[in-house]
Structures are given as C-alpha cells and as structure tokens.
TrEMBL record:
Spans traversing the lipid bilayer: 37-55, 67-87, 113-132, 139-157, 163-186
Claim: rRNA-binding is one of the keywords in the record: no
Species lineage: Bacteria, Bacillati, Actinomycetota, Actinomycetes, Kitasatosporales
Species: Streptomyces inhibens
Keyword Membrane: yes
Domain of life according to the entry: Bacteria
One Pfam family it belongs to: PAP2
Protein name, per record: Phosphatase PAP2 family protein
InterPro entries registered for this protein in UniProt: PAP2/HPO, PAP2/HPO_sf
Domain Phosphatidic acid phosphatase type 2/haloperoxidase per the UniProt entry, residue ranges: 67-178
Membrane topology: Multi-pass membrane protein
Length: 247
C-alpha cells in the first residue's frame, strides 16, 4: 500500500501545520525540552509511575491480583508494538516531513514509516493497562499518553492520525487481552507470593502486621478459653466470692 492519500484539502495536514507551527515560533530551549520529553521523558515518566503503582499495590488486600494487573500494562505495550510492525509495513505511510516542506522537524533522520506512531501506541497501552488495575494511576498514565501524542505532532515526526491510530491500537490491545492476561498472570503472581520472592507481590511489613493482628486475636481467644475453663473447673467459685464480699 503506497500510503494514505494526502492530496486536496486534508484536516490531518492542517492540524499538523497548526501544531507544528508552535515549534516554529517557540524559543530554542522550549523545542529542546519538547524533543527530550517527546522522545524519552514521557516514557521514563510512565516507567516511574508503574513502579509507584507496583509499590502501592503490594500493600493492598489481594496484592498478587493487583500486581498481576500492573504487570499487564508494560506487557500490553510490548504486544501492541509487535502488532504495529505489520500495520506499518502494510500502510507504508512516509513521515510527514518527507512530503511536506517547511515543517519544523525537531528530530531529523527518522527513516521508518509513520502510521501508526510507536510512541503513541506504547504510552496509551501502558496508560489503559494501568487504568484497568488502578483508576488514579491509570488516569495519570492516560494524560501522559495524550501529552506524548501532542509532542509527536509538535516535533514534526507524525501526523495527528498517526497518533490517533496509535492510541486506538494501544487501547484495543490493553482492553481486549486483559481478561486472558489476568487469567495467566494471577496464578503466577500468587505462586511468587508463596516463594522466597514474595516481596515482589506483597509488602513484607504489611504481611508481618497482619500476622501480628491475627496472633493478637488468637491470643485473646486462648485467654478467653482459659477463663471459661477455670470457671467450669470451679463450680463453687461464685459462692466463695459472695462469701468474701459479705465478710
């Protein structure tokens, strides 16, 4: 396939010109910051967000299941990127700067095809995967993915439809394969929780605290049993106590 048609009025190109036009008027340091953020920064931020979510999930009830959901987020991103390989080869859409002169290209030299955006695919898959496991962290992840999409167009390396296609692909993989992923990952994380690597899926401190509470309850139960047993062994206990009070 030779690529998506670009002749005639094209809202995709108009949006590209409008967003990339911001880069033409921006100071050099702003463009350098956008280049770093759009190429590496947001992906690094999502990695940190996944680590924070994992650290929090280890302290939740049903930690192995929660951790399994978080493991799915990066796995979904990897599967989505693999799925994009044949899509790119089929569409064969050139990068926008190859067909449109005058763009402010912040990262020149990219020679691969444009549709769909790998960065948009990866970040949205992680964001949606996080959302399935934890709403708050997932919303942050999805916002970061949207920012990534804007950066790719701003940098002049993707059309808006490349980004939208990446968002759709990442979302589809993360949502549609989530039930199968959970069915496979939950037994795995549960088994890890019973192994010497249990700290990966369950916080040790929380586990000890739970054990202390359980031990306290067991101790209270045992003490109650001793009181009952003592009372049963001394049927005249109440009478003796009454005599002492009367004296």
């Amino acid at each position: 396939m030779a690529g998506l048609a670009l002749e005639g009025p094209n809202p995709d190109v108009d949006m590209l010109d409008g967003i990339n036009g911001l880069a033409k008027d921006a100071p050099h340091w702003v463009n350098k910051a956008m280049e770093y953020i759009g190429e590496y920064g947001i992906i690094a931020g999502l990695a940190v967000l996944c680590l924070i979510a994992w650290w929090s999930a280890r302290r939740r009830p049903g930690a192995p299941s929660a951790v399994a959901g978080l493991v799915w987020a990066p796995l979904a991103a990897g599967i989505a990127l693999l799925a994009n390989i044949p899509i790119r080869a089929f569409v064969e859409r050139p990068r926008p700067f190859k067909d449109h002169a005058g763009l402010e290209v912040l990262i020149p030299g990219k020679s691969d095809f444009s549709f769909v955006s790998d960065h948009a695919t990866l970040t949205m898959a992680v964001g949606v995967g996080l959302f399935i496991a934890h709403r708050k962290y997932g919303l942050i992840g999805i916002l970061l993915a949207l920012a990534e999409g804007f950066c790719r167009v701003y940098m002049g390396v993707h059309y808006p439809t490349d980004v939208v296609g990446g968002f759709a692909l990442g979302t589809a993989v993360a949502l549609l394969l989530a039930p199968l992923a959970q069915a496979l990952l939950v037994p795995l994380t549960t088994a890890i929780g019973r192994s010497p690597l249990a700290w990966l899926v369950r916080a040790t401190g929380v586990e000890a605290a739970d054990g202390a509470v359980a031990g306290g309850r067991a101790g209270q139960g045992a003490e109650g049993s001793r009181v009952v047993a003592t009372g049963a062994a001394m049927p005249g206990g109440h009478k003796e106590r009454d005599k002492d009070l009367a004296a």
